[in-house]
Amino acid sequence: MGLTLSFLLVGALTLIAYALAGNMPAVFGIWVPYAASALFLAGIIYRVIDWARSPVPFRITTTCGQAKSLPWIKADRLESPSGLFSAVGRMFFEVLFFRSLFRNSRAEVHAGPKLAYGSSKWLWIFAMMFHWSFLVIFIRHLRFFTEPVPYLVTLAHSLDGIFEIGVPALYLTNLFILAALSYLLVRRIIIPQIRYISLLTDYLPLFMLFGVVISGVIMRYFVKTDVVAAKKLVMSLLLFSPSIPEGLGIAFYIHLFLVCVFFAVFPFSKLSHMAGVFLSPTRNLANTNRVKRHINPWNPKVKVHTYEEWEDEFRDRLKAAGYQLERD
Amino acid sequence: MALKLTHDELMKFDLRPPKKGWMDTKPEFRKGTFCFSGVQKHVEYLEQPNPREWQPYDEDWKLPENWEETIIKGFEDRLSRFRSFKLFMDICVRCGACADKCHYFIGSGDPKNMPVLRAELMRSVYRKRFTAAGKILGKLVGARDIDEAVLREWFYYFYQCTECRRCSVFCPYGIDTAEITMMGREMLNMVGLNINWIIEPASNCFRTGNHLGIQPHTFKDNIEFAVDEIESITGIRVEPTINRKGAEVLFIIPSADIFADPHIFTFYGYLMLFHEIGLDYTFSSYASEGGNFGLFFSHEMVKRLNAKIYAEAKRLGVKYIIGGECGHMWRVMHQYMDTMNGPAETKGDPVSAVTGTRFDHARSTKMVHICEFTSDLIHHKKLKLDPARNDGYRVTFHDSCNPARAMGMLEEPRIVIRNSCHNFFEMPENTIREQTFCCGSGSGLGTDENLEMRMRGGLPRANAVKHVHDRHGVNMLACICAIDKATLPALMDYWVGGVDVCGVHELLGNALVMKGEKERTTNLRGEELSSKEDANA
Questions:
Q1: Which of B75, B186, B203, B335 has the most A C-beta neighbours within 10 Å, making it the best mutation to test the interface with A?
Q2: A7-28 residue pLDDT tens
Q3: CB of B206 within 8 Å of any CB in chain A?
Q4: Does B345 contact chain A (CB < 8 Å)?
Q5: I need a surface site. Which of A88, B205, B484, B524 has the fewest CB within 10 A?
Q6: What is the dihedral of CA B138, B139, B141, B147, to 10 degrees?
């Protein structure tokens, strides 16, 4: 149900933009982008603040390697961080290279029963492919947002089209992201367990991104869009003096609308994992539990059974057994 | 007690999930797959909510009238107190990388034993009650309200997770199902849903000082018994003390070590080691338990039970604390104790009087794991060891979940083992160290009525042992956890056969050459040394 419905939803969004954007360019070119940006920014800030408002009462690092203990035992500082520096290192590899996912394995139960564990890197490969392509695409889109265009953006742009296949040059990231999105969608559909746990909210972002990428590809290679006009619109939005330039085709509005919806729901969906991963206590805390006392701001007072109460309760037996007592 | 089902019967399950969605399938409380309820008098003693007689298979769970409100309030409260919980409710992308990492899923095929779905049982309610999308769109976005059927599902599956944290190793966001299970069990406990194998030890521990309810005179007797046994094996009379003020070290063990088989042999090992190096240490019959079954149902109870450790260290005026072989005990000591009941008021720092090593990594908590302590002695060549005495054993090592994934203590026990025996074989790499598989009985689920689930959950561990048993003739499974020692023997008997279970310090005790000892004819178990060797030759 989630699968079909999210496909239909994205189809409906596309149709809405297709049918209405021509007549209401100000809505789709100005107000929707503003609203989406506001929702995205406010939403992400709210999300992070909301998470951060809850304290981290205990240091619950998941250690995935040898801790720093005795000096002659080689510690795995990345997998069991021994301080801030190595915790930052762990997060660096986690966020940029999905180190935990890289560990992924596959367990199989054969007759016997006999268990076998195989390496299973596909999810990691395509997840990397997807996220890095997304990042590069995002960066090269910044050329619409900046004047002059920073070198990094130009570089991303030219590297992405480095093979100069066709005119305009084919972006590698377009291929990669389509391949990765296809993998992520197909595995969700064909692996029974994954399909079983998948919700509408899992399919929807995939279809939205398909829509975004496909409309982008169409604009670049098939229905030529006036790039200068697109930049004019974006810059006018950024300078808060919005105006709709001539020459923006319907493909552009579809692309923009889907992007807007994507970013508008971002903070309120599982997509917020992008921000959340930085706050994950099992990963971002150093394994320094016994070195430095971690403070729990709400550490409660609890009822305990004190030694004195205990001694009173067992006094006769303690005496009979010849224990030394606090009070005789 | 052994499981009557054959291996084939147990493994006859369909890996394909049901046709119906998971919200529409409900667990069946089948005998062998759940634990019995907390007994009223223990619930009362601990002053926990809703004490009564009930069982999970009953029609009527006798819930308090306002139970829904209690659960939702408890939910909200925990979201505001634990960032982990709140974050883990929000950021899962359901990639499924965790699915086949769970021993219960591997051994049962039940999709609700996939960590992701276990968490969704709770996330669905979170969405319904605490997110706008869930309130408006409901089931469409995976939201559903709490009702009694959901509550029963929670009980079934949150007591079918051993909080081993293996899934959290693989999760790209570090989502730790143990956190979710712990919150789930806390909320369940708020309406009087708990299990006796947890509540009774916690109640015993609060009253007497240890899970087994051993009173101080019996505690002493048991130690005396061990002293006699050691004397008959080695000819040496060790002299442990209890509740002695002014000792340098307070030694904390899981109480099973002085009571249960095969734990007791590890206990002999501790006593022999400390005698040999002349450690100035004392036991405490007040703090006679390092384990902490509070961890399995309530953070508050963790603190209540754990408080006695630092209190006793202070009363006795020791310099530091050494802790014995126990898994979840060390999760508490390493990740909770200092925060909850610290700062430690000891008379000194953790420094080995024998080697001079400062245990700097424990400088705040002041508590050192015995494997750390012993591996330091070995490194400084302070022990005379004769590994040949363990030649009858072909040993493998089961990393206990908590020392591995909460402490990162992987090498220390291996150092002790390698120096104590000749024949040591590692299990496959996907099943050891940080990827170690749970015994299937952790977090208070090691009870007989839950035997079927235990054998299912223990399958990955057992299967890895079987691998080295078949390939290398492994006949001894070493571990550093009291629950392991209590539950792995049944697991080995069911799945493998011909493999015993021991503690690391039992192997050390066998190998330890003590000054003035008589020639050893038996190992600590009383098995003839020579005959063992012959059998192996």
A1: B335
A2: 999 999 999 999 999 899 999 9
A3: yes
A4: no
A5: A88
A6: 70
Instruction: Output the CA torsion sign for A213, A218, A224, A225.
Output: negative
Please report how many Cα atoms fall inside a 13 Å half-sphere around the Cα of residue B415, on the Cβ side.
Answer: 22
This prediction's pTM: 0.96
Q: Which residue did the predictor score with more confidence, B533 or A90? A: A90
- Quick check: B207 and A289 CB within 8 A? no
Residue type, B365: T
What's the one-letter identity of residue B200? E
- A147 Cβ under 8 Å from any chain B Cβ: no
Kindly report the CA angle at A273 between A278 and B163, in degrees rounded to 5? 80
If DSSP codes are grouped into helix, strand and coil, which group holds residue B409? coil
* A248-298 residue pLDDT tens: 989 999 999 999 999 999 999 999 999 999 999 999 999 999 999 999 999
- Domains along the sequence of chain B with CATH: 49-193 (1.10.1060), 203-536 (no CATH)
Strands laid side by side in the B395-398 sheet:
B395-398, B476-479, B500-503
B264 vs A286: CA distance, rounded Å: 35
Chain B touched by A309 (CB under 8 Å): no
The interface predicted TM-score (ipTM) is: 0.95
Compare CB distances from A100 to B83, B171, B405 and report the shortest one's residue. B171
β-strand partners of B528: B522
The nearest CA of chain A is from the CA of B311 a distance in Å of: 8
Q: Report the C-alpha dihedral over residues A300, A305, A309, A312, rounded to 10 degrees.
A: 180
Q: Which tokens sit at B487?
A: 């539950």
**Parallel, antiparallel, or unpaired for β A114-119 and A105-110?**
antiparallel
* Residue from the list A56, A289, A320 with its beta carbon closest to the beta carbon of B83: A56
Kindly state whether B375 is in contact with chain A, defined as any CB-CB distance less than 8 angstroms.
yes
CB nearest to B169's CB, from A67, A100, A198: A100
pLDDT greater than 90 at residue A162: no
Name beta bridge partners: B323: B252, B369
Interface test with A, best of B361, B432, B455 (most A CBs within 10 A): B361
Q: What is the mean pLDDT of residues B177-194?
A: 98
Q: What is the pLDDT of residues B53-91, one digit of tens each?
A: 999 999 999 999 999 999 999 999 999 999 999 999 999
Are B536 and B391 a contacting pair, CB within 8 Å?
yes
Matching CATH number, A2-302, of 1.20.950.20, 3.30.465.10, 3.40.50.720, 3.20.20.30: 1.20.950.20
Contact B463 A54 (CB under 8 A): no
When pLDDT is cut at 50, 70 and 90, the band that residue B1 belongs to is: low
- Quote the CA–CA distance of A25 and B276 in Å, as a whole number: 87
Cα first-last separation, chain A: 74
Integer Cα distance of B456 and B450 in angstroms: 10
